[in-house]
Amino acid sequence: MEYWETIRIESPAPGVARIILARPEIRNAQSPKMLYELDRAFARQAADPTVKVIVLAADGPDFSSGHDLDADFSLPCGPVATLQAGLESDGIEGHYAFECEAYLGLCRRWRDIPKPTIAQAQGRTIAGGLMLLWPMDIVVCTDDATFSDPVTAFGVNGVEYFAHLWEMGARKAKEILFTGRSMTADEAKLTGMVNHSVPREQIDEFTLALAATIAERPEFGLRLAKEAINRGLDAQGFSTALDSAISLHNLGHANNLARYGRLTHPQGADRIRADKRR
Ligand code: ZN
Predict the structure, then answer these.
(1) How many A from CA of 220 to the centre of ligand 1?
(2) Separation of 216 CA from ligand 1 center, angstroms?
(3) How far is the CA of 151 from the centre of ligand 1 (A)?
(4) Of 52, 124, 139, 252, which is most buried, counting CB atoms within 10 Å of its CB?
């Protein structure tokens, strides 16, 4: 029996694996430890021939509150998922390598898992939390769920897996990024970011039924359908745009470092707290 510190793995139905973020006391804030445990769990489920569909769920009131800023960021956190150089370097050189690996790199791996994946999100999903949600193929949320990326307050363009344009369309993405405000479940459904929103007490059952329905189909057909859609997104420029956005994101970090001696704008947290009180 493998020991997991930040997640749990369940087998709730034949052919369905459920990975659960299990740090509700800090609203499933993601540390490098959690990201690499998650990566290992996804790799395990991808390789397991008895698993056809993977659900990513979360304990507690919220799906994920984003990056855990108090976490230990010293590498290595696990086997490096991308071929990076300069991870140990100072300045933006090391930070860029870290973000290409632990944020963009891991999200890409999860987006291309050759099996259907479903995110099940209750409550709030904030900033880095979106990077757990968006790489999944289908999103089910509670009808009281909210989604936000307020990090322009930190002097960067948005979270490191910059899929906003594809998830909500250009105009909505700009508004959400410019204001930092939360989107409701209904709004997220309208933009196509969310497939279904259901009452909180029904979300486990609803998501499991959806996963079980998918698991009845042949795995290769499912894999080919997923690859066809993902390749289509890439043909539209998805991957190229994300590569470009992580460079701009690190230009933001570099600017903060040069002007304020830190990676994020010093008033960022205050700005976000003030917006919440509004
Ligand atoms: Zn960053």
Answers:
(1) 36
(2) 40
(3) 9
(4) 139
The CA 190 to ligand 1 mean position distance, Å, reads: 28
Q: Residue 265: left if φ>0, alpha if ψ -120 to 50, beta else—which one?
A: beta
> In this predicted model, what pLDDT tens digit does every residue of 81-133 receive, in sequence order?
788 888 888 999 999 999 999 999 999 999 999 999 999 999 999 999 999 99
pTM above 0.85, yes or no: yes
Kind and range of the H or E element at 277?
helix 268-277
pLDDT tens sequence across 220-232: 999 999 999 999 9
CA distance 178 to 170: 12
Task: Compute the distance from residue 166 Cα to the ligand 1 centre, in Å.
Answer: 20
How many residues comprise the chain? Answer: 278
Q: Is the pLDDT of residue 141 over 90?
A: yes
* Domain assignments of the chain as residue spans, ordered by start: 7-276
User: What is the b/e burial string over 179-194, where b = at least 16 CB atoms within 10 angstroms of the residue's CB?
Assistant: ebebbebebbbebebb
pLDDT, tens digit, 9 for 90 and up, residues 191-246 = 999 999 999 999 999 999 999 999 999 999 999 999 999 999 999 999 999 999 99
Q: DSSP E strands: which ranges in the chain?
A: 7-13, 16-21, 53-58, 117-121, 124-126, 138-142, 146-148, 183-184, 196-198
Is CATH 3.90.1180.10 correct for 7-276? no
